[in-house]
Amino acid sequence: MQSFQLGEHASTVPITSYNTQEWQKGYRSLDQEYDYWIDEIEGQIPPELNGTLFRNGPGRLDVNGQRIQHPFDGDGMVCAIAIKDGRAHFRNRFVRTEGYVAEQQAGRILYRGVFGTQKPGGWLANAFDTKIKNIANTQILYWGGKLLALWEAAEPYRLDPRTLETLGQEYFDGALQPSAPFAAHPWIDPASQFDAGAPCLVNFAIKAGLSFTINIYELDLKGAIVRQHNHPVPGFAFIHDFAITPNYCIFFQNPVAFNPVPFLMGTRSPGECIKFQPNKPTRVIVIPRDVASRPKPIILETQSGFVFHHANAYEQEGEIVIDSICYENLPAVKVGADYRETDFAALAPGQLWRFRMNLETKAVDRQLVEPRCCEFPFIHPAKAGREHRYVYLGAAHTAQGNAPLQAILKVDLKSEHRQIWSAAPDGYVGEPVFVPRELPGASGLYTQVEGDEDDGWLLTMVYDSQHDRTDVVILDAKDLEKGAIARLHLKHHVPYGLHGSFTPHYFES
């Protein structure tokens, strides 16, 4: 194992912190599947940090040279970084979904994608073909002894947590029907009042039809679905994420319209048929988790905007407080556009906002918390649904404008203090995953905060465009400004990913 001197350079980075051509290099397929010990480490892995970081994202952005139109249509590739006793092991595997296997065998694109990918042959080859490939590319989670790769429009795929071998689709002993969606943003309630204080997993799904229905699922520690309830939703429901409290599930129904005709006629993908409606409000759907005593959702409205991700929510004196990344609008997915040519300066940034919702009066107040361009919020896992003090985010290097994520930002909601660690100008960061320093509970989960809420580490994957490789970077969550504790240099790049999770279970075969 090699060790090198750390060197930080954030303060010397120019105002224009990124190079578009260098940023684009992170959007290339990683065709090879690796399995090796990481032997080039800058700094030192904390000896108390033990477990496995799982991370999911689109790993293949073409099929035999035929380019995927948008990275969100790319096949899921799971990475596992197993850490123990100051050492780390890397492994990556593609999720062998039915569609992935078929396309690899055929050597060409066989399925339409949600965000622009079409089968070769023009509209005639795509008309009335509504079958969308399950790409299992958004989240990866270890729950109930099962490692699950999630994509919001279909059922999960189960993987072997040691080898990442695809074991097949997961239906939770028949509680989930074939082809039924199971969303990619579950929350773990650290102390569910419906399970005698034990943790439970809460997730949802959007079922489309003549109207839209939100399905709520709650799973016990064994991975069984123990509660399920459905709620019709008027209008089009384009919902990617949600939030929970001990008593509620909260959804932001973004103000968009969907015209299915171009999709059915084969000229556009579903994502290209969505149009943002700035003159309509965002609807907030608050669904009680205890449907026996409170069966009906509560509907509120707030100013028009678009939300992909929520940081957390909690209840306070008859109100629900929720921190979310909000955009002024949703830019249209343009037909034939090249996502690698994104004009960041022309787009409004995502920013962290706080919404306070009074369930009695239905009044909604919102306040800008962090104006810096940011995304991928993360909190201490034991604070899910409870009042939190710290939010960690991927962020732009500069304080104004829109830009690629090159920094990790810590927001102290109590003191309003900020800390930032930047990988600019050569580095481009992913989601920061918070790992508490304290040991998990008997369930193997982090269910309470034993010390300070920020006592732990942040793990993030950073594409280093100068060396054309990806680093796994470990930061001290208490003090980001001290710089990276360790940089684990991989032997290759990993395409920009989406979400990940950490488990204290150590998986290295």
TrEMBL record:
<dbReference type="GO" id="GO:0046872">
    <property type="term" value="F:metal ion binding"/>
</dbReference>
<keyword id="KW-0560">Oxidoreductase</keyword>
<dbReference type="GO" id="GO:0016121">
    <property type="term" value="P:carotene catabolic process"/>
</dbReference>
<protein>
    <submittedName>
        <fullName>Apocarotenoid-15,15'-oxygenase</fullName>
    </submittedName>
</protein>
<comment type="similarity">
    <text>Belongs to the carotenoid oxygenase family.</text>
</comment>
<feature type="binding site">
    <location>
        <position position="309"/>
    </location>
    <ligand>
        <name>Fe cation</name>
    </ligand>
</feature>
<feature type="binding site">
    <location>
        <position position="240"/>
    </location>
    <ligand>
        <name>Fe cation</name>
    </ligand>
</feature>
<feature type="binding site">
    <location>
        <position position="185"/>
    </location>
    <ligand>
        <name>Fe cation</name>
    </ligand>
</feature>
<keyword id="KW-0479">Metal-binding</keyword>
<dbReference type="GO" id="GO:0010436">
    <property type="term" value="F:carotenoid dioxygenase activity"/>
</dbReference>
<keyword id="KW-0408">Iron</keyword>
<dbReference type="InterPro" id="IPR004294">
    <property type="entry name" value="Carotenoid_Oase"/>
</dbReference>
<dbReference type="Pfam" id="PF03055">
    <property type="entry name" value="RPE65"/>
</dbReference>
<feature type="binding site">
    <location>
        <position position="499"/>
    </location>
    <ligand>
        <name>Fe cation</name>
    </ligand>
</feature>
